[in-house]
Amino acid sequence: MLKQYETVFIATPVLSDVQMKEAVSKYRDIITDNQGEIVHEEDWGLRKLAYPIQKKTTGFYHLFEFKANPTLIAKLELQYRRDERIIRFLTFSMDKHAIEYADRRRGRRAEQSQLQPQPQPQQ
Fold first, then answer.
1. How far apart are CA 1 and CA 3, in angstroms?
2. Within a 10 A sphere around the Cβ of 90, how many other Cβ atoms?
3. Which CATH number fits domain 3-112: 3.40.50.300, 1.20.120.420, 3.30.450.40, 3.30.70.60?
4. What is d(CA 48, CA 102) in angstroms, rounded to the nearest whole number?
5. Which residues pair with 90 in a beta bridge?
6. Among 14, 34, 113, 122, which one is least packed by beta carbons within 10 Å?
7. DSSP 3-state assignment of 24?
8. Hey, is 40 helix, strand or coil?
9. Residue 104: what pLDDT?
10. Predicted local confidence at residue 114, as pLDDT
11. With the CA atoms of 67, 44, 84 and 18 taken in that order, what torsion angle do they form, in degrees rounded to the nearest 10?
12. Who has greater pLDDT, 109 or 122?
């Protein structure tokens, strides 16, 4: 039986764009290669940390919402721990209330992006 999970990881800020995309695709592949299904994915970009971690004050945040067997979580977190690019991570199982909240939040973000005026190309 598949359960729904959400995982957020923080990558070290010294990574280039290419290295960050490579790290994200690695974890996306781990989820999909182990019969997981990605429901939603967000790149939060470079953000300031609440407190220094490994003498770093910023980090690249990335979120995955996915459905998977509970056995995948141990494999995923083991890879997070082994990867020197990842400075923090958190994975949790979503209950029905968390799933509803995440769906509403995604709906509000979609509405906001549609309401914002699109920049016109310069001529």
1. 7
2. 12
3. 3.30.70.60
4. 23
5. 8
6. 122
7. helix
8. strand
9. 87
10. 73
11. 100
12. 109
Bridge pairing between strands 37-53 and 56-68: antiparallel
- Give the CA distances from residue 97 to residues 4, 5, 67, 93, 101, in Å, rounded to whole numbers and listed in that order: 12, 13, 16, 11, 6
- Reading the block at residue 53, the tokens are 């971690």
Residue 99, SS3 per DSSP: helix
Q: Token pair for residue 51? A: 């407190």
- Percent of the chain scoring above 90 in pLDDT: 65
Residue 119 has pLDDT above 70, yes or no: no
Task: Name the strands in the sheet holding 86-93, side by side, starting at the edge strand that comes first in the sequence.
Answer: 37-53, 56-68, 3-11, 86-93
Q: pTM (2 decimals)?
A: 0.82
Write the burial class of residue 62 (CB in 10 Å: 0-12 exposed, 13-18 middle, 19+ buried): buried
Reference 6, options 122, 101, 119; nearest CA is 101
Two tokens at 50? Answer: 């609440």
pLDDT at residue 112 in the model:
74
pLDDT at 6: 93
- H or E stretch at 101: helix 96-115
